[in-house]
């Protein structure tokens, strides 16, 4: 046998052995779970847009119990639906689980220049989180309230036209137009409403649609190919929606930077509040010092370097990208599910309308009035229990070997929460778990679920940073709609909803009628 042939044979055997070793990880640990196949593990089972991963996990949980192991390409993952286990990972042992499960196509969170607060980890995450948090403070939300309401008023005009004559509307389409309009104004420098004529919508929508997840399958199985894909997409961004959107964001940020520099040279002083997130991020400062620690190996001395308290140009692009994507999709879905549940529970809808009429009598809805909509908060919370949105991202990566609830979890292992099972567990919620019951929240949160049993926006220090903005948008729009209309089901309303999706779980459609309340 020639040396070349021996080398090829050795490489092939080693390559094959590595994948078989990874595939048999949970078998060797004695942890039950679906096995799938060498190389892919069970990743191929998550490609069905018509049967989202959250439903697959729920099926497996029924078969294997609240803790079981799967392999996803070269990643090993524990799927859990035990609230104590979840609380331990997300809250109590956050220092051991501060990373997220990421696909290699998303880039190395420690090296990617455009890493955002969702994907970053360690000191970089802490720095990005601190610099981004003021964007979602009460002060910032009050400042953008008028912008949100302008989009609400614009949507109301479209709803009035679309629902004339008792026409059936797919409310999901309308809510997607609304949320993209809001996030375009507050994050992207968009000056006027672009509802139903926004060229960004198809690009953003395609990220969540069917047919794109083959890239995640390929790079999940063969991570070595991820840098090649990223290089190609960075050179030719229009062939991949996420990179195309980042390219558009880059142009918007560059235009704002150029404008600010030109104004400064001309002696123009810009006073007042920042126009949008771009201005906020360009002006970002952290009021604390952070340090990065880097060790080349376990014996090397730790190198400590100061971290700049400004966001870099590339980091601004990354932040705007994740806020654009998340702000568009999850809020539109929450609105859609809330609307469907109100339409199918008219007595709850009537009670909510009475609260809105009482607390929001003026044409404009103020920030303080929104805070008084307590029953609406209950409706939204219960909706998010029924339909947890981006539950695929409710995961953590073990950064240091530790023990959780008596189980040793090795460094590099992912923990994925089966949120749909948690949110429908009668041991947590009671025998009426299958009922849509907003009243269960009226006496407060802690009385009705164990810690770790409810996480529509995640849990612990990495809880969704945009949660308050999303809730403000939803409450504002629902208040305006419910003052004027009553949601009703139609012949084409899917009951129950048909759920589809990849990263998020969406209804295929939410077809409803809007009956003007003056006809009540």
From TrEMBL:
The gene is Cre-cyp-13A5. The lineage of its organism: Eukaryota, Metazoa, Ecdysozoa, Nematoda, Chromadorea. Pfam families: p450 (PF00067). Keywords: Heme, Iron, Membrane, Metal-binding, Monooxygenase, Oxidoreductase, Transmembrane, Transmembrane helix. PANTHER family: CYTOCHROME P450 FAMILY 3, FATTY-ACID PEROXYGENASE. Belongs to the cytochrome P450 family. Its cofactor is heme. It comes from the Eukaryota. Heme binds at residue 464. The chain crosses the membrane at residues 6-26, 214-233. One of its GO terms (molecular function) is iron ion binding. PROSITE patterns: CYTOCHROME_P450. This is CRE-CYP-13A5 protein. Cytochromes P450 are a group of heme-thiolate monooxygenases. They oxidize a variety of structurally unrelated compounds, including steroids, fatty acids, and xenobiotics.
